[in-house]
Amino acid sequence: xxxxxxxxxxxxxxxxxxxxxxxxxxxxxxxxxxxxxxxxxxxxxxxxxxxxxxxxxxxxxxxxxxxxxxxxxxxxxxxxxxxxxxxxxxxxxxxxxxxxxxxxxxxxxxxxxxxxxxxxxxxxxxxxxxxxxxxxxxxxxxxxxxxxxxxxxxxxxxxxxxxxxxxxxxxxxxxxxxxxxxxxxxxxxxxxxxxxxxxxxxxxxxxxxxxxxxxxxxxxxxxxxxxxxxxxxxxxxxxxxxxxxxxxxxxxxxxxxxxxxxxxxxxxxxxxxxxxxxxxxxxxxxxxxxxxxxxxxxxxxxxxxxxxxxxxxxxxxxxxxxxxxxxxxxxxxxxxxxxxxxxxxxxxxxxxxxxxxxxxxxxxxxxxxxxxxxxxxxxxxxxxxxxxxxxxxxxx
Amino acid sequence: xxxxxxxxxxxxxxxxxxxxxxxxxxxxxxxxxxxxxxxxxxxxxxxxxxxxxxxxxxxxxxxxxxxxxxxxxxxxxxxxxxxxxxxxxxxxxxxxxxxxxxxxxxxxxxxxxxxxxxxxxxxxxxxxxxxxxxxxxxxxxxxxxxxxxxxxxxxxxxxxxxxxxxxxxxxxxxxxxxxxxxxxxxxxxxxxxxxxxxxxxxxxxxxxxxxxxxxxxxxxxxxxxxxxxxxxxxxxxxxxxxxxxxxxxxxxxxxxxx
Lengths: 396, 258
Ligand SMILES: Nc1ncnc2c1ncn2[C@@H]1O[C@H](COP(=O)(O)OP(=O)(O)OP(=O)(O)O)[C@@H](O)[C@H]1O
Ligand SMILES: [Mg+2]
Description:
The structure holds two protein chains of two kinds. Chain A is of the alpha+beta class. Chain A has three domains: about 5-50; about 80-155 and about 265-390, MetI-like fold, CATH 1.10.3720.10; about 180-235. Chain A is built from twelve helices and ten strands. In chain A, the strands form four sheets. A four-stranded antiparallel sheet of chain A has the order 3-4-5-10. In chain A, strands 1-2 form a two-stranded antiparallel ribbon. In chain A, a hairpin with a 2-residue loop joins strand 1 and strand 2. In chain A, helix 2 runs antiparallel to helix 3 and helix 4 (about 135-145) packs across helix 7 (about 265-290). Chain A is globular. By secondary structure, chain B is an alpha/beta fold. Chain B has one domain: P-loop containing nucleotide triphosphate hydrolases (Rossmann fold). Helices cover about 40% and strands about 25% of the residues of chain B. Chain B has helices spanning about 10-15, 55-65, 85-95, 110-120, 125-140, 155-170, 185-200, 215-220, 240-245, 250-255, and strands at about 15-30, 30-40, 45-50, 70-75, 80, 95-100, 175-180, 205-210, 225-230, 230-235. A six-stranded mixed sheet of chain B has the order 6-7-8-3-9-10, sandwiched between helices. Chain B has a four-stranded antiparallel sheet with strand order 2-1-4-5. In chain B, strand 4 and strand 5 (about 80) form a beta hairpin. Chain B starts with 8 loop residues before the first helix and ends with a helix. In chain B, about 50% of the residues are buried. The chains are: A alpha+beta, B alpha/beta. The interface of A and B includes residues 301 and 317 of A. The complex binds adenosine-5'-triphosphate (ATP) and magnesium ion. Magnesium ion binds near residues 58, 178 and 179 of chain B.
C-alpha cells in the first residue's frame, strides 16, 4: 500500500509547520530527560553520601554576627531573617551602585564626545584603564588604599562633615527621622506624582495653545511647594519630620558620632563597583549617541530647533533605544559582581551565605541565594523591558 | 545674475536678492572645497545647481543655512549676515528649509509628529493649528492617508515627500534641495519631482536645488548654475545653458550625464 501521510495536501515530512513542531517536541523531550537524569543523580548522591539538605534550619537561630546591616539584626534572629538582612545589603549595594554608576557613566560618555580635547582624552584613558583591569584587583586596590588611610583624628575630613579614615570608615551627614518621617516621605511622593501630572498638563497646554507654559518649572514648583507645606505643617504640629545629623568627633578616640557611617569594606566595594561599571556604561552611552546619524541632528537644526531641543526631541530618544538594553545588562553585572564583597569582607548575600554553610546545609543555602540573585536580575530585566517597550517604535 | 562681476555691498542689501554670496571660501582641513563662490539669488527665483561629484555643490548650499561654516567671504541670507552669532543662525534656519538626499526623517516620530515638531517647538504654533496645516501639506504632497504611520513604514518616495512637507511646515522663504531624488528608484523619482515642480510653479518661495534631473531643470529653472572644483563655472538660463554654453567644461559634463 502506498503511504500517503499528508497535511493540507503536503507530505508531512515536507510540511514546514509540522517539521518545526516536531523539532520543538523532540528537543523538549530531550531537555526534560536530561534534567530528570541530572536531578535523580544529584538526589541519589545526596541520599547516599548523606549530604544534609532541607529547609528546616531556616527557623533556627543564626547566632552569628553580621558585621554591617541595613535592617536591624541580632544574633538571636533566625536564618530566614539573616537571609533577608543579607539580601537587603546586596540590594542596597546594587541600587546605590546602579544609580551612581549610571550618573558617572553618562557624564563620562557624553564628555568623550565633547569637542574638548583634553577632557575627552582623560575620559578615554579612564574608560580603557578601568574596563581592562579585573574587578577583583580593583576592589583590593581600593580596599588597600582605604586601609592605608590614617586613623580617625588624622583621617580625611571634608567640610567638617564627611570623615574618611581606616577604622571608622566613611561617615557623612544623614537625615535622622524625628516626627513621623515616613508619613512626610509619603507626602513628598504625592507631591512628586502631582508634579508629574502638572508637567504633562502644562506640556499639553503649551502644545495646544502655543503659549509658553514652562512645564518643568511648574512641575518642580509643585514638588517643592508640596514638600515644603507638609514640612511646615509638621513643624506647626510639633517637630520637623527630619533633622540633619552631622557626624562630629566624640570620646577619647574622636570617632565620628551622628550622621551615617559605612565601613571601609562597603566603601571600597561601592567605589570599585561604581568606577568599574561606569566605564562600561560610558562606552554604551557614547556608542548610543554616535549611533544616531549626523543627518538626524542636521535635519533638526535645519528646521530651526536649537541644540538642546535637538538633543531632547531627536537625538536622545533615538540613542536611548540603543542604550537601554546593554545598560540593563550592566545593571545585572553590577548586581552579580557585588558578590565579590566576599573577597574584601563586606557582609553581602554571598559572604553571609558562605558563613552560614558552617552551621547549615550548604546546598540549600546556595540554592536560596541563587534564587535571590535570579529574582534581582529578573526585576531589573522586567523594568528594562517595560521601559524599552515604552520607548520602542515601529518602523525606523 | 551677477557671477562674474563682483557683487557689491549694495546688492547685499538689495531687497530683491534673498541670497548673496561674495567670494566664499571653505576648507576641510587642507582641502580647499569652495574656492571663491560669488553669486546672488533673487526672491522667488528657482536655481538648479549641477556639477561633477565633489565639486562643492552640497558644501555651498549647506553654508547657506550654516550646516557648514565658510571661512572667508560673506554670505547674506534675507539681509542677515551669516556669522557666528547664534541668534542670526537660528533666525536664518527658521526661514530656510532643507531637503536631504537621505530624507533624514525622525524615525521615532509619526509622519504627523515629524511635521508638527518644529512649528510647535520653534514657532510655538498651537498643536491643533499645526496638525491642521500638516494635513494640508500632506494633501499637497499627495499622501494625507499616511499621517499616523512611522517613516519606516513608507516607501522612499513617500518619505521624501514627507520630508518636503516637514520643511514646508515652517513656511520657509527659501527651500534648499540636496539631490532629493538620487536615493530613489526610478518610479519614485517622478512623484517627488512632481511635488517640486508644483512648488516651483507656485512662486511662493525661492528654490535652490542640486539635481541632475535635467528635464526638471529645463522645465522649471530660471537659472542653471554649474560648479566645478569649488567654483561656479557657468550660470545661465536653461535654454542657453543646454544649447549655447560658454564653457567647454559644461559641454563635456552634459555629454557625460546625458
Ligand atoms: N565633512 C567633510 N570633511 C572633509 N571633506 C569634506 C567634507 N564634506 C565634503 N568634503 C569634501 O569636499 C568636497 C566637496 O564636497 P561636496 O559634498 O560639496 O560635493 P558635491 O558637489 O555635493 O558632490 P556630490 O555630487 O558627490 O554630492 C569633496 O571633495 C568632499 O570630499
Ligand atoms: Mg552633494
